[in-house]
């Protein structure tokens, strides 16, 4: 009897055999179907998220393809957190609707089926400058009263009225600016600033704000997206001394960076660039981004422009990033009555606490720096005279290197060698001031000479209560080679308390930039034209790439 005949006989005679055979056949069909489905399953693709900048409770719409007609075990991830079941409103093959959760963080958005999609960047609106949402019930702001009609720089004033909005957003309080101008321009007014922590309370009927650095007697008003309030007069007292902003110059500055030869594992790799935006403050009141190529994913996030490259394919050709800024700069001089300067009284003020503390850039708690600070004019209690004594000590006892160094050397190296470049001088001076309980900022930027050539440069400002910020350039005071627009007879005397309009600032203080994703690879650029923690960031799947950051270029001076 053949094998076929034996199987046929067994099939007819044994019910158990027949059942087992059917189970085997069904299992084979099921496994084959699953394998076919797995091989033909498509990778999910994100094309857009809306909104890319949102707040908890908003509905996010994710458009793309290959999500599947139902969620099943698939999920959405935002900023490293997997969304819970209660967040999902709708799920089909080309669109997903979710509620943004309360614990949302800045980061990347993924859709994960059996495969992980490419990703797009999402930012929490609460962490970035964003416009106040329109409210048709509100009208233009109205000032009914002001708590002080006479005040000094840094004084806290209370403005009462209506229609200010329940949160500030991009609304601001404006003061008459101490700028010398030949005609009426937007430089006639300056706003209170977050950098100095001027805003202490903002509600629909009450604003508590400090008089900003660079203000003078004149009009004060509130401006919201609904319009500008009535003006109210405010006299600015100048008991300690006077400031002068003059010699206005307008620059067109171009920043460029290139990325090439990028290689990624899979299609989810990204490279993120953080281009610093020029700072806005009293002597540099206006900054306009006139051109940005390509369009950034975020135009202003923690004072940087954020560009991101999706590495769905390896990039062998060069990708160029270019942005042009129009920047208004004034020279800034001070005339201080030193005997009227007193030690800082309001030591609970956030400006004092922040700018006398150490950070990753300023090493004011280093034992050697703290000891050196105490040894210079140890009996001096006047912060202005103490700052002048430290300035003179550095210039008289340390040698200046005209060419900037490239190594990321600690300040202890300058203490040992008694020599440093402009970066070392600025950071050591700022550290010594903070160690003496004098609020101070290190500023990173560029120095433009009379031939429109520019170079990376660093200087300092320190703060006197009741007066405001005072500029100091220790490197120029020590004789750094530089061709100014107008000749300075005594550079050592001039650059303590004065600064020319050839300094363009890109950072005031240390800018701690947060990474986009967990486990990313970041690049910090020491001794560059801005003091910020991250310049480049690549995801873990980005294997390699090359980048070139060009020095800023001045395209025009007006």
Give the helix tally: 9
* Envelope shape: globular
Largest sheet: 6 strands, mixed
* Uncertain residue segments: 35-40, 130-137
What is the terminal-to-terminal distance? 106 Å
The proportion of residues forming helix, as a percent range, comes to 10-25%
- Classify the beta-strand content into a percent band: 35-45%
Average pLDDT figure:
88
- What's the total number of strands? 36
Class based on secondary structure composition and strand pairing: alpha+beta
Whole-angstrom Rg: 31 Å
What do you see in this structure?
Strands 11, 13, 14, 17, 18 and 19 form a 6-stranded mixed beta sheet that branches. Strands 20, 22, 25, 31, 35 and 36 form a 6-stranded antiparallel beta sheet that branches. The termini are far apart. Residues 35-40 and 130-137 have low confidence and may be disordered. The protein has 558 residues and is α+β, with helices and mostly antiparallel strands. The chain contains 9 helices and 36 strands. It is 17% helix and 38% strand.
């Amino acid at each position: 009897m053949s094998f076929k005949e034996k199987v046929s006989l067994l099939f007819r005679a044994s019910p158990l055999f027949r059942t087992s055979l059917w189970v085997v056949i069904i299992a084979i069909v099921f496994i084959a179907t699953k394998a076919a489905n797995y091989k033909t399953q498509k990778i999910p693709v994100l094309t857009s998220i809306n909104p890319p900048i949102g707040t908890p409770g908003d509905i996010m719409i994710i458009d793309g393809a290959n999500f599947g007609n139902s969620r099943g075990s698939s999920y959405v991830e935002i900023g490293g957190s997997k969304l819970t079941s209660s967040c999902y409103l709708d799920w089909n093959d080309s669109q997903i609707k979710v509620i943004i959760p309360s614990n949302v963080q800045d980061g990347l958005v993924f859709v994960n089926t059996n495969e992980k999609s490419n990703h797009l960047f999402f930012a929490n609106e609460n962490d970035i400058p964003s416009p106040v949402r329109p409210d048709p019930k509100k009208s233009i702001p109205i000032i009914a009263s002001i708590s002080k009609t006479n005040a000094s720089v840094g004084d806290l004033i209370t403005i009462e009225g209506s229609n200010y909005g329940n949160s500030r957003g991009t609304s601001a309080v404006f003061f008459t600016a101490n700028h010398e101008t030949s005609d009426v321009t937007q430089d006639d007014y300056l706003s209170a600033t977050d950098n100095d922590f001027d805003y202490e309370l903002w509600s629909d009927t009450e604003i508590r704000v400090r008089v900003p650095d660079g203000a003078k007697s004149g009009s004060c008003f509130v401006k919201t997206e609904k319009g500008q309030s009535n003006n109210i007069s405010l006299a600015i007292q100048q008991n300690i001394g006077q400031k002068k902003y003059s010699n206005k110059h307008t620059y067109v500055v171009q920043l460029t960076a290139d990325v090439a030869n990028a290689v990624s594992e899979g299609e989810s790799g990204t490279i993120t660039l953080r281009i610093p935006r020029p700072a806005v403050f009293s002597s540099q009141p206006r900054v306009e981004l006139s051109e940005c190529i390509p369009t950034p994913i975020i135009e202003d996030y923690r004072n940087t422009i954020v560009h991101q490259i999706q590495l769905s394919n390896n990039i062998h050709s060069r990708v160029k990033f270019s942005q042009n800024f129009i920047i208004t700069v004034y020279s800034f001089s001070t005339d201080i009555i030193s005997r009227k300067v007193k030690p800082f009284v309001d030591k609970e003020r956030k400006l004092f606490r922040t700018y006398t503390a150490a950070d990753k850039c300023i090493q004011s708690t280093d034992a050697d720096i703290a000891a050196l600070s105490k040894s210079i004019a140890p009996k001096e209690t006047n912060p202005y005279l103490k700052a002048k004594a430290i300035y003179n000590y550095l210039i008289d006892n340390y040698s200046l290197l005209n060419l900037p160094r490239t190594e990321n050397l600690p300040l202890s190296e300058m203490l040992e060698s008694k020599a440093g470049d402009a970066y070392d001088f600025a950071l050591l001076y700022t550290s010594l001031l903070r160690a003496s309980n004098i609020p101070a900022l290190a500023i990173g930027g560029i120095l433009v000479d009379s031939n429109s050539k520019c170079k990376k440069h660093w200087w300092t400002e320190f703060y006197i209560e009741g007066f405001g910020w005072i500029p100091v350039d220790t490197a120029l005071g020590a004789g750094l080679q530089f061709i100014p627009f107008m000749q300075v007879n005594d550079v050592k005397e001039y650059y303590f308390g004065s600064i020319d309009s050839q300094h363009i600032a890109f950072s005031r203080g240390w800018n701690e930039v947060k990474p986009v994703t967990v486990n990313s690879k970041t690049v910090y650029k020491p001794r560059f034209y801005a003091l910020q923690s991250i310049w480049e960031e690549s995801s873990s799947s980005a294997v390699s790439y090359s980048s070139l950051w060009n020095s800023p270029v001045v395209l025009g001076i007006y």
